[in-house]
Amino acid sequence: MHKLAGGILNGQRGRMWGVRRFLRILFNILTVTSLALFIATALVWIRSASRFDRGWFTAFGQGWVWSSENGLFDVDNQWWLLLGDVDGGVTDIPSMRYPPDPRWIGITLYYRWVMLGTAIMPMAWGFVHWRRRRRRKPDHCPACGYDLQATPDRCPECGAVPLAKDARLPGPGG
Question: pTM score > 0.85 for this model?
């Protein structure tokens, strides 16, 4: 009885392949999501170089202002700056109280750091697939890596049947 990678016996092979498949699918989903965020951040960064955007929203019981310009994204609770002149505590923005909370809370993000953070998963995915392709040899089993020069039709180690493109074709001498 032979063992699979990591010392798992043959009887547990089905469960292990299911977990690996799930992790591979999860990794691919996270990579695609990270790549989409990377592209969206790049587009917003390009837009912020030529245009000033500003808006507001409510969260945690208070008003928040966001702005984007010159490669920076700011979020803070100084929403009253949008109003200009406030008349007796009445605002044009719904569900925001005036006078505002005196505690200032703000976050500033540089788009380049967000892009760097969202590029990590696609770079890891590319590295994993590059290494996997580099390691694969044409005359070895694609499942376990056993040398198939003597038995090109079937792997004697794991029993896998290599595809026609993986099998080594005989040379011109025979």
Answer: no
